[in-house]
Write a structure and sequence with these properties.
The structure is a single chain. The protein folds into 2 domains: 94 residues, ATPase, nucleotide binding domain (Nucleotidyltransferase, domain 5); 157 residues, ATPase, nucleotide binding domain (Nucleotidyltransferase, domain 5). The termini are close together. With 271 residues, it is an alpha/beta fold. It is built from 8 helices and 12 strands.
Length: 271
């Protein structure tokens, strides 16, 4: 049986996965400013890195904002486009093994997709995401590289940035302990170092996404929240979402290969 290729074409990054017999067997990512260049470059690199020939590819399925620029078949291989929200839902469900779940795709912005049985639907989103992280850190710190931002954040402390329940109350409030954030950047001071500000921005982004995801799950009567996309792979994301499990009585899941979920979902749509 030939290989099915799923391609998630973003504005600056293209991700490709290969599937055979229902299993993900290989994946790569390539950065490029032009989506067509990114897609074709990623495809060529995918073939070369995995020692594949064009004849071994049965079908290509494209998704993502950049897929609208792809016209016709890629290298003569039958090529179809897949609705991005459907790809998010299929990929998140496959990687997590969940039945009903809210699948969160954290990219430049953030999308929320509800999966119930075989029904997949987009239920909303937020403009808060990776673009927020980069944009705020650019203006506040003069730093745009995500790797640099995360490196700074690793050395930061929220004590000079965020206001907590403990800052305004002598005791916990309901199910919120004294470390729970009362206001993001509500205690920012001149003492805050660049590392503290970088951590504050990261915390703001993850807490906003986590809160909205938890509310989406609660409104749908679903407990499982599956986190996908590049930001899901950031180490501090696990701590923030782990803390939110107790706060919101939800289960936050970051599966392996979460950053390739949408490309994987596109490939699954071909089954």
């Amino acid at each position: 049986m030939g290989l099915t290729i799923g391609i998630d074409i973003g504005g600056s990054t293209t991700k490709i996965v290969g599937m055979r017999d229902g299993q993900m067997i290989c994946s790569i990512r390539v950065r490029a400013d032009d989506p067509v260049t990114s897609a074709y470059g990623a495809f060529g690199k995918f073939l070369a890195d995995n020692g594949l020939e064009l004849g071994e590819i049965a079908e290509v399925l494209c998704t993502g904002v950049g897929s609208s620029f792809i016209q016709g078949d890629i290298y003569g291989i039958p090529t179809r486009k897949v609705d991005e929200f459907r790809a998010i839902g299929l990929g998140g469900r496959f990687l997590s093994g969940c039945g009903d779940a809210i699948i969160v795709s954290m990219g430049t912005g953030t999308a929320f997709v509800k999966v119930e049985g075989e029904t997949i639907c987009h239920i909303g989103g937020t403009g808060v995401g990776g673009g927020t992280l980069v944009g705020l850190c650019d203006k506040m710190l003069g730093v745009r590289g995500v790797e640099h931002i995360l490196h700074l954040a690793e050395k930061g402390s929220l004590s000079n940035v965020d206001l907590t329940i403990g800052d305004i109350s002598k005791a916990a409030i309901s199910n919120m302990d004294k470390e729970t954030t009362a206001s993001n950047f509500g205690k920012v001071s001149d003492m805050a170092a660049p590392e503290d500000l970088a951590l504050g921005v990261c915390n703001l982004v993850f807490q906003t996404v986590g809160t909205l995801a938890a509310f989406s799950a609660r409104g749908a009567g679903i407990r499982d929240v599956v986190l996908t996309g590049n930001l899901a792979m950031v180490p501090m994301a696990r701590k923030v979402f782990s803390d939110f499990e107790k706060l919101y009585d939800a289960r936050f899941i970051i599966p392996d290969n979460a950053d390739f979920a949408t490309a994987l979902g596109a490939a699954l749509a071909g089954r």
